[in-house]
């Protein structure tokens, strides 16, 4: 059940105020200057290229993929990672199998359900029959033993993983990698400046990324997908050509205002400003980690991603969520929302105003 829907089922009449430390409250977006020319009669532009403005595609390629063989025409600018994940699912269709980190970002599983890839939900184990769940636990450093993963057509990796803050450091050991398509979503490119996946195995991997987290673009909506030229279907046809067809059919292109902001983000001044924003969130994270540690809880993550993964062994994550909300008026996110491997955890987000973080941690 979605967190907000669950909140509505609780008796909150006695709560005077609620502080949100989940995904729904963010600090103000990075104040990138929007191009003033868009507000003039002569400078306004209507529909642009569905793939994104050429200057932004070139800037993304040179900023994040220099030396990796990724060029501007390999970049597809979008309205965010979640949208591109769904478009990729449309591209691959319903007759594929997939594996996902457990726990991990719910959009991978949910989009697979909509496309009919997953089979029936098995209530006894709280899993879909046709999904390979790669369990991520404290014992394996929140990264699965890839050698035990059953053969699938698609493997989703999230780096840093939301919610556990691990990265796909062992992706190169995927059995039969030449025949597997790995989709890696980099939610924080400032933490991982090089896509190791695209560097080492471009013939089997593509990458989805977003400005949402590290530039505060959660409401602005801007991201991209990088598809190497070497990534082909088994018959030799380029995946990028099919994705281009999907994009041009289902999408009219990202907002020109958002793209102007994105171009400002990847300028030298913008990179500096984004590092400052990331530093601010890291300070928030340190406050949250110190608070839970002082209370005797085991805390994971919070190093390379703005999420703190707090363990409550033997307890239902929804029960913990409800108790924290009702007793402290602080909203977290139940770990079970990220998959069965998230049971017994809650995720606490450092995305928020400093005064709210301090108030919640008092």
Automatic annotation (TrEMBL):
InterPro entries in the cross-refs: Aminotransferase_I/II_large, DapL/ALD1, PyrdxlP-dep_Trfase, PyrdxlP-dep_Trfase_major, PyrdxlP-dep_Trfase_small
GO molecular function: pyridoxal phosphate binding; transaminase activity
Cofactor list: pyridoxal 5'-phosphate
Top-rank taxon: Eukaryota
SUPFAM superfamilies in the record: PLP-dependent transferases (SSF53383)
Domain Aminotransferase class I/classII large as annotated: residue spans: 206-361
Protein name: Aminotransferase class I/classII large domain-containing protein
Lineage, opening ranks: Eukaryota, Viridiplantae, Streptophyta, Embryophyta, Tracheophyta
């Amino acid at each position: 059940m979605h967190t907000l829907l669950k909140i509505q089922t609780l008796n909150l009449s006695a709560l005077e105020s609620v502080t949100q430390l989940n995904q729904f409250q963010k600090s103000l977006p990075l104040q990138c200057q929007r191009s003033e020319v868009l507000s003039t009669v002569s400078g306004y532009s209507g529909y642009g290229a569905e793939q994104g403005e050429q200057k932004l595609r070139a800037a993304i390629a040179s900023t994040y993929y220099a030396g990796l063989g990724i060029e501007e025409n390999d970049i597809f600018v979008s309205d965010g990672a979640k949208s591109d994940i769904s478009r990729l699912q449309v591209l691959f269709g319903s007759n594929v199998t997939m594996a996902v980190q457990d726990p991990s970002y719910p959009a991978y599983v949910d989009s697979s359900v909509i496309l009919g890839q997953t089979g029936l939900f098995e209530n006894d184990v709280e899993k879909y029959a046709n999904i390979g769940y790669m369990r991520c636990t404290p014992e394996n450093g929140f990264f699965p033993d890839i050698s035990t993963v059953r053969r699938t057509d698609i493997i989703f990796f999230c780096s840093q993983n939301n919610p556990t803050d691990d990265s796909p450091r062992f992706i190169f050991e995927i059995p039969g990698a030449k025949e597997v398509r790995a989709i890696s979503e980099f939610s924080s490119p400032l933490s991982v400046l090089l896509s190791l996946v695209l560097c080492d195995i471009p013939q089997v991997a593509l990458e989805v990324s977003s400005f949402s987290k590290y530039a505060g673009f959660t409401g602005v909506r801007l991201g991209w997908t990088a598809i190497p030229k070497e990534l082909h279907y088994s018959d030799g046809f380029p995946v990028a050509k099919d994705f281009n067809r999907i994009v041009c059919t289902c999408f009219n292109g990202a907002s020109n205002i958002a793209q102007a902001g994105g171009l400002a983000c990847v300028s030298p001044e913008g990179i500096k400003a984004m590092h400052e924003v990331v530093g601010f969130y890291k300070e928030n994270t340190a406050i949250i980690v110190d608070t839970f540690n002082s209370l005797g809880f085991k805390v994971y993550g919070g190093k390379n991603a703005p999420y703190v993964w707090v363990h409550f062994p033997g307890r239902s994550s929804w029960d913990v969520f409800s108790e924290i909300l009702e007793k402290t008026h602080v909203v977290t996110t139940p770990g079970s929302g990220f998959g069965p491997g998230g049971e017994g955890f809650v995720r606490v987000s450092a995305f928020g105003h400093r005064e709210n973080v301090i108030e919640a941690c008092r």
